Amino acid sequence: MLSQPLSVSFDLGGGREVTIETGKLARQADGSVTVKQGNNILLATVVANKEPREGQDFFPLSVDYQEKFASAGRIPGSFFKREGRLSDPEVLISRLVDRALRPLFPEDYFCDVQVLITLVSSDEEVLPDALACLAASAALAVSDIPVKEIISEVRIARIDGQLVVNPSRSELAKADMDFIIAATEKNLMMVEGESKQCKEEDLVKALELAHDAIRVQIKAQEELRAKKGVTGKRDYPKPDQNEALKEVVAAFASEKIKAISRGNTAKHERSDAFKALKDELVKSLGEEAEDKTKKLAKKYYEDLQWELVRDMILDDRIRLDGRQLDQVRPLAMEVDPLPTPHGSALFTRGETQSLTTVTLGTPLDELLVESAAKSDYTKFILHYNFPPFSTGEVKPMRGPGRREVGHGNLAMRSLKQMMPGSEYAYTVRVVSDILESNGSSSMATVCAGSLALMDAGVPVPKHVSGVAMGLISRGDGKYAILTDILGDEDHLGDMDFKVTGTRDGICGVQMDIKVDGLSMDVMREALEQARKGRLHILDAMYECIAEARPEVKPHAPRMEKLVIDKEFIGAVIGPQGKVIQEIQKETGTTINIEEVGNFGEVSIFSANKDGVSRALTWIKGIVAVPEVGEVYEAKVKTIQPYGAFVEFMPKKEGLLHISEVSWKRLENLDGVLKEGDMIKVKLIGLDQKTGKFKLSRKILMPKPEGMPAENNERPERPEGGNHRPHGGGRPPRS
After folding, report:
1. CB-CB contact of 129 with 63 (8 Å)
2. How many domains, the chain?
3. pLDDT average, residue stretch 25-50
4. Reaction catalysed by this chain (predicted)?
5. Pairing outcome for strands 652-657 and 693-696
6. Long-range contacts of 711-719 (CB under 8 A, 24+ apart)
7. Per-residue model confidence (pLDDT) at position 254
8. How far is CA 208 from the centre of its chain?
9. CATH number of the domain residue 369 falls in
10. Are 614 and 591 in contact (CB under 8 A)?
11. 415 and 359 together in one domain
12. What is the DSSP letter of 332?
C-alpha cells in the first residue's frame, strides 16, 4: 500500500502560503520534497553514496537547478526542442544553493552527494530562485544524509522604501535593493545581490529581516522531519587518523612554516617554498614509509600550515605579503591600451590583473535571456574569462565554468547600476580577460570594466570599484578583518565577501560565511573597512579617467535616437520596408525602430558620422509636418514654363510659381534657376482642395524701392497647372 504524503505549511506574510510535502514524488531518492507557492512547484531530490570513492580526499557535492519549459507551457527555442545544458541563470541559482549547503557537511565526509532541484510548475509572479535552497535543505532534512544543520534562503528587496521578503516578480521590477540571503537558525551563511547605492546600515537591516524570515522556514522543515520520523543520521567511513604522525609533522615543519609565512614574498616564491618544505617532510619519513602514510603526512602538513598562518595573522597582525590588515595592494591602471576596441582598460592590483574591453553594438545585438517563465532581451552584457595561465597552470580550455559565470554575474550586476536607461540605444558588451590572479579577479573586473566604459564614451555618471574582504576568527574571541585578500588568505578565512559600489553606496555584494556566531557588530565593522578600501581604489580610478568621454571613438558606431509619433512608424518603414531599406543603403547606416507605448523609438547607427546625420535628417523630413511661414532649404527638381518644382523637405515637393521667384517680372526661368540649384524658400500656403504646397522665393528678398503693393489676387494658373508634385499630397495629421 502506498504511504500517504506528509506536508507542512507556513505563511510568508500577506497571506502567501508555502507548502513543503514529502512522500509522494521520487520516493527512491534518499530525500525528496516539493515546495509549492501559488502555481510554482519545485521538486528537490538528494542522493548520497554510502561509501567514498577510493582515495577520495575532498567533498564531491554537485547541485543542479533546472527549469522545465513545460512548467510554463512553453517549448524550448533550441534546435533540438529539449532542455540542454544548464543556462547561465540556472547555473547562478545552482551556485546560490551550493554555496549555502556546502558548509553544512562534516569536514571528514567525502561521499558523493547530488542535489537536483527542478521547476516543474511555474507561476508568473512567484520567483523560484528564492525557494530553491529551501527545497534542497528540506530534502536533506527528511533524509538520513549527515548534515549538521538545517538552512534556508530568502530574497529581501526594498520597494518604495520598505523591505519585503520574497517579493513577486512585478514588485521586484520596482526594487532598489535585491539580496538573496541564506542562514541557519543561528548564523548567516551566504549573501548575494545588488542595490542602487544603498548604505551599509541598509544591508545590515536587510540581513536581520532575512534571518527572522529564515527561522520560520527552518521550523517548518523541522516539523516535516519529525512527521517523517527521521531521528538520526547515517554513519559514514571516517578518514584514517595517526596522532603520532601528526606530532612528527608538527615538530619537523612548524618553525619552517612560520619562517616562510613571515618572509614577505611573492605568490609563486612563497608557494614554491611551501611545496619544497612539503617534499622535504615526505622525504624525511624514509623510503620505507607507505604511500598511505605519506598522503596522511601531506594532509597534516596542510592543516598545520592553515593553523599557523591564521595564528600569525591573529596574534601578530602580520599578513603573508607584509601588508597592514586594512591595506590595499599597489594599484596600476590605464585606459585605451588597445587601439581598435571601442573602449579598453588595464587594471592591476598587486598580482591580479584584468584586461577589459567594451564593444558597442546596435539593438540587433541584444542578448536573449530565456527561462521557463519568460524570455527577456538585455542590452548590457558582461563576460568574464579566467584562462589557466593567469595562475601559472596548464589546463584544457573547455569554455566558461560555473565560477566564470558567477564572477561575471557579480561584476555585471554591479556595473549595471550605473548604466544609462532605455534611452541609450547601444547594446554594450564588456569582456574581462584575467591575465594574472592572486585574489579577487572579479573585483578587478568591476574596476577595469568601469574604466573601460568611460573610455568607450558610455555615459556612466560614476565609477564603480570593488574590494574583496576576509575574516579570520578564533574561539578566544580574537578576529582580524582583512582588506584586499590574497588567494591564500581566501583559503584561510572564515568569511570572504566582496563589496562593490560608488562613493555614495553599495552596488553589489557576494558573501560566504564559514564561521558560527558572527555578530552584526563584526559585520558592521567589516562593511565599514570594505567601504574605506573601496574609496581608496575609487580615488585612483578617478585620477586615471575622471568622467566618460564626451564622444565614442572615431571607429565606434555613431548613434542618434529620435522619438516619433506612433502613426509615423509605417511611413518610415515604407511598404514592405522599402523606405527604411533605401535610407540604410544610401546612408550606410543601421536603423532600428521599436514601438514603445504611443511612440516609436528610432535608433540610427553607423561608424560614419555624416551617414548618421543624413539618415537623421531624412527621417525627420518624413515625420515632419510642413508649417506655413517656415523657411526651408530647397532643391530645384524640375523647371516648367510656369515655375519650378522644388523639394523643400525629404520626399516633399511644392510649386515655386514663376511669379514667386523674383520681384522682377520673368517671362521664363532661363538663366535664373536650373535643376539641382539649392535655394531658400518660404511656405506661404497650402491649397486645401488639392493639398499642394505654395512656396515663395521672392518674399525672402529685399523688395525694390518704388514697387507698388502687390495685388492680393493670384494670377490665373497657366495650362498644365494641375501637375501634382511627388510627395505634395495632403500632409500627415499632426
Report:
1. no
2. 5
3. 96
4. RNA(n+1) + phosphate = RNA(n) + a ribonucleoside 5'-diphosphate
5. parallel
6. 715/659, 717/642, 718/641, 718/642
7. 92
8. 26
9. 3.30.230.70
10. no
11. yes
12. E
Q: Assess whether 196 and 286 both reside in one domain.
A: no
Side chain identity, residue 297: A
Looking at per-residue pLDDT, the higher value among 397 and 717 belongs to 397
Domain that holds residue 608: 558-623
Tell me the per-residue pLDDT of 464-502, one tens digit each, with 9 for 90 and over: 999 999 999 887 888 999 999 998 888 888 888 999 999
pLDDT tens by residue, 529-539: 999 999 999 99
Nearest to 688 by CA among 631, 730, 637, 652: 730
Span 230-254, average pLDDT: 90
Helix (H) or strand (E) holding 635, with range, is: strand 631-640
By DSSP bridging, strand 61-67 and strand 113-121 are parallel
Claim to verify: residue 351 and residue 277 sit in the same structural domain: no
Which of these, 323, 310, 303, lies nearest to 479 by C-alpha position?
310
Summarize the annotated binding site for Mg(2+) as residue ranges.
490, 496
Number of helical (H) and strand (E) elements in the chain, helices listed first: 14, 29
SS3 assignment for 94-113: HHHHHHHHHHHCCCCCCCCE
Spatial contact of 415 and 430, defined as CB atoms under 8 Å apart: yes
Residue 322 forms part of a structural domain: no
Question: What is the mean pLDDT of the segment spanning 290-307?
Answer: 89
**Which range among 66-80, 187-201, 432-446 shows the weakest confidence by mean pLDDT?**
66-80
Binding-site residues sit at 490, 496
How high is the mean pLDDT of the chain?
Answer: 89
Q: Work out the average pLDDT over 278-285.
A: 90
Residue type, 400: P
717 inside domain: no
Examine the domain organization and report whether 527 and 563 are in the same domain.
Answer: no
pLDDT-wise least confident of 83-87, 199-203, 340-344, 502-506:
83-87
> pLDDT higher for 677 or 134?
134
Confidence of residue 709 (pLDDT cuts 50, 70, 90): low
Provide CB contacts within 8 A for 454, sequence distance 6+.
335, 343, 460, 463, 545, 547, 548, 549
Contact predicate 122/131, CB 8 Å: no
DSSP string of 659-719, one letter each residue: GGT-SS--S--TTT--TT-EEEEEEEEE-TTT--EEEESGGGSPPPTTPPPPPSSPPPPPT
pLDDT of residue 728: 40
Rounded distance between C-alpha atoms, residue 13 and residue 7, angstroms: 19
- Helix, strand, or coil (residue 52): coil
For the segment 622-645, the average pLDDT, to the nearest whole number, is 85
Same domain, 444 and 494: yes
The grid cell for 390 is: 593567469
CATH label of the domain that carries residue 306: 1.10.10
10 Å Cβ neighbour count for 68?
16
Confidence label for 356 from pLDDT (cuts 50, 70 and 90): very high
Amino acid identity at 74: R
Q: Do both 684 and 598 map to the same domain? A: no
Contacts of 216 (CB under 8 A, 6+ apart): 10
Rg value, the chain, Cα:
35
**Residue 563 falls within a domain, yes or no?**
yes
Q: Is residue 553 part of a domain?
A: no
Mean pLDDT of 320-330: 92
